[in-house]
Amino acid sequence: MLLSEILPTVSQLSHQDKLRLIHFLLLAVAKEEGCSLEPVADIESESALLNQLSSTEAIVWSPQADRETVQALSDILQTAQS
């Protein structure tokens, strides 16, 4: 089968099915090259990781929240424009 015959069908796949296809192709090519890439089959560890991520608190810093940093960035911009 030619690639030109497959592409129209691939373009109709959902986003998730396209990702599954990419994963399948990656494993197939790796196997042809003699590499062993095992698919993630351990649902429990995947679930544990997702639970850990959902309970983790992240702090996102932004220069917009700090007046001194905003002023410093403004000064740098004014100097660059002069």
What do these coordinates show?
This protein has 82 residues and is mostly helical. It contains four helices and no strands. The chain has helices spanning 3-11, 15-32, 43-54, 67-81. The protein is elongated, with a radius of gyration of 24 Å. The relative contact order is 0.05. The model has no long low-confidence stretch (mean pLDDT 81).
SS field, number of helical segments: 4
- Could you name the ranges where pLDDT drops below 50 across 5 or more consecutive residues? none
Helix content: 55-70%
Q: In whole angstroms, how far apart are the ends? A: 62 Å
Radius of gyration, in angstroms, nearest whole number: 24 Å
- SSE ordering: HHHH
Beta-strand percentage?
A: under 5%
- Shape assignment: elongated
DSSP summary, beta strand count: 0
Average of per-residue pLDDT values = 81
> Which secondary-structure class do the elements indicate?
mainly alpha
What summary fits the major beta sheet? none
Q: Which helices and strands, and how do they pair?
A:
Layout: H1 3-11, H2 15-32, H3 43-54, H4 67-81
List descriptors.
elongated
Brief digest:
This protein is mostly helical. The chain has 4 helices and no strands.
